[in-house]
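Might you be able to review the protein record set out just below?
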Amino acid sequence: MKHYKSSLKIAARELRKNMTPTEEMIWFAIRRKKLLDIQFYRQKAIGPYIVDFYAPAVNLVIEIDGAHHLTADNIGQDKFRDASLNELGLRVLRFSNAQVRSTFSKVIAGIITAIRVAKDLPPLKKGVATSEQNNTCKIN
């Protein structure tokens, strides 16, 4: 298990109680080992951050971003955060709320592809492009 700031425990608990509608959509699809028998945790504290979803068995983090992540300041913060999580050996998938709402099946396919890559399984016939350079996955 990854180390975290104990002061984030209460904040993570509150975030679990108040998930956004798009986070709830993703959570319903990935909870209870629904995807390739992988356990996910929601609103999990890792290091100095709270990530939306975390699968320790495959070192995978999923972030669901609202519109405020599109500002220049937040884009820079997200890149720094992703780099920090990558240094911990984690792969970060980042999806926007709009992507989750409009292309839900593609988002889930992207998550499945990332799990299959991490588990060294053959790729799906129809996957999404991933960037191995920065360990993130984005769906257009």
Summary: The radius of gyration is 14 Å. The chain has one domain: 8-137.
